Here is the input.
Amino acid sequence: MQTQDQQDLTGNELNAQRFRMLEDIAKELQGEVVFPISFDIALRIRKLVDDPEQSIEKISAMINLDPLISAKLINQANSVAYNPGGQEVRNLRGAITRLGLKAVRSTVMAIAMRQLLRSKDMVDFAEIANRLWNHTLQCASAAYVLARRMTRLNPDEAMLAGLLHDLGAFYMLYRATQYPELRVRPDTVRHLVIRWHDGIGVSLLGSLGVAEEIIDAVCDHDQPRLVPPAPRNLSDVIYAANLMAGDALELQRDEGDGNDFADYMPGASYLALQDEIEAHAKSMRAVFD
Here is the structure.
């Protein structure tokens, strides 16, 4: 229920509050970024996985701090994509061994992002959160398949980049939940997310220590340009995957920003992979939803 003060909050005052949110985000990005505990654990796991000196035992011990992540990893390891022979693994170490560390890193990040959007505090932004999640899964799946079928890039690395390409939007929605005056106006937050998530996302990924090649690949994924006949690098993969994923672009067109992405859609060699992309996305939803 909105109070009278909240109902009357418009014009310059509302603009001031939106600016305060952006200003607070800018200050936080210059220091230590704060996420919910489940996301914090995921970031710590990612750092361990990226450290070649760490053992599977130590990584397993960290993952065991979050029972949900442990269960989802075992579920992923037993999915058709990773277990075509039907031989189930029943423990976390076996799941990590089967998936491989790069796939573990992507899976852990996807679980954390999904939990972030499912937070009870996110209920006021449920519509945009759901669209963002569906788009992210579709983009990650497209990135995986495009990298696997059309390049020599590591598909799991491409999938991670696809998962992280709109992390700025996830972060902005999380921060917006901390402003009661914005929670009652999801449309104004939606506008902020569309306009600012790219730049904030690049700064966020940098502050989290994400690899430069991933940051470079996602930094201009919403800038319209022609898609090459075949992707030449990770940036091309993420751009094409983002186009093929769809939903986030619809959010932009709703805002009337003048970008006609239909003129830049990938060609037949990309579109021929749509069935495989959809199958991969379906498999991911079975694990994470």
Q: What stands out?
A: Residues 1-9, 253-258 have pLDDT under 50 and may be disordered.
